[in-house]
Amino acid sequence: xxxxxxxxxxxxxxxxxxxxxxxxxxxxxxxxxxxxxxxxxxxxxxxxxxxxxxxxxxxxxxxxxxxxxxxxxxxxxxxxxxxxxxxxxxxxxxxxxxxxxxxxxxxxxxxxxxxxxxxxxxxxxxxxxxxxxxxxxxxxxxxxxxxxxxxxxxxxxxxxxxxxxxxxxxxxxxxxxxxxxxxxxxxxxxxxxxxxxxxxxxxxxxxxxxxxxxxxxxxxxxxxxxxxxxxxxxxxxxxxxxxxxxxxxxxxxxxxxxxxxxxxxxxxxxxxxxxxxxxxxxxxxxxxxxxxxxxxxxxxxxxxxxxxxxxxxxxxxxxxxxxxxxxxxxxxxxxxxxxxxxxxxxxxxxxxxxxxxxxxxxxxxxxxxxxxxxxxxxxxxxxxxxxxxxx
Length: 391
Hints:
By secondary structure, the protein is of the alpha+beta class. The protein has helices at residues 4-12, 65-69, 103-107, 113-131, 195-210, 212-221, 228-232, 240-245, 254-264, 268-275, 287-291; strands at 24-26, 28-29, 32-33, 35-38, 41-48, 51-58, 73-81, 87-96, 101-102, 145-147, 153-155, 303-307, 310-315, 318-325, 327-328, 336-340, 343-347, 353-358, 362-366, 369-373, 379-383. It has three domains: 4-96, no CATH class; 101-286, Transferase(Phosphotransferase) domain 1 (Transferase(Phosphotransferase), domain 1, Orthogonal Bundle); 303-389, Thrombin, subunit H (Beta Barrel). The chain has eleven helices and 21 strands. A hairpin with a 2-residue loop joins strand 5 and strand 6 (51-58). Helix 4 (113-131) runs antiparallel to helix 5 (195-210) and helix 9 runs antiparallel to helix 10 (268-275).
């Protein structure tokens, strides 16, 4: 195994021996190469053929890298001498330099809810694009995602990736535990290895956009509050709102609280993705479907309909309100009553949430009156024409 110091010393030498590369200029500071370390590697910024590049030198061998990177991977490329003067050759990788800062660095800055929401949306777009490929990254985490100046995201450090050429092999790495399902093993090695990481990061970002305290925790501690190991060994508590109403104190987990927040805000699609985090397998086969936007149309002639066990509203032309809900009542007085988790929502005919209440509340629609009956028999009567002014 080659030491990091030996590699840095080799690149500081103006007569660095290369096997095939020529014209490599290492970016230096005070005469020494600028570098940072990764998992069994050292990374340098260089100029090569007139362009900014990243040079990655490996301290140990990884037999998957040729299949993952193709021609960008240079085996036995850099000549390195140890303290005894013995020379050996280390594997290298040259990649384009991606302009921007990591998602981790972005989250460590003070951000508004709107900025966090844009990050969450950009991540979902990035994740869906990745899920549509026949390969996977293998170690998705905020440190391995670059946020460009235009807000688009790009993955870096593909050393743990799966590509079709490696089908049937064992993974050399299983990713960073803080963003992986605890049951992911080296044997589970296919295009679904990013599923759990994607669902987890998406849930984190959307939670940060609705709860500034969670975003502040990451900014201060440089890590999320929750760990997948704790999530998967906690049983989901879908009755927490009911327990609160009958006077008991339910055991709350981070995911319980996040699901309640999404349900209360009628964030139906994100609620469904967050629910996947309780699965006892790293492969989340419903994830791609949930991340894919469902085309909707506009119509007043709609009815409750079901797809994949979830409810929405459709017309002859297609879906008007996408099917992410647990229950949907037929339209009445141009109002829609739906249930998402432990909350009921009254929606307008175009899906805009007008009124939300815990699912234990009874709601009746009589003409222009909305009768809301809570535990204990107390009733509130709301004029439907005034609903838009309630929220």
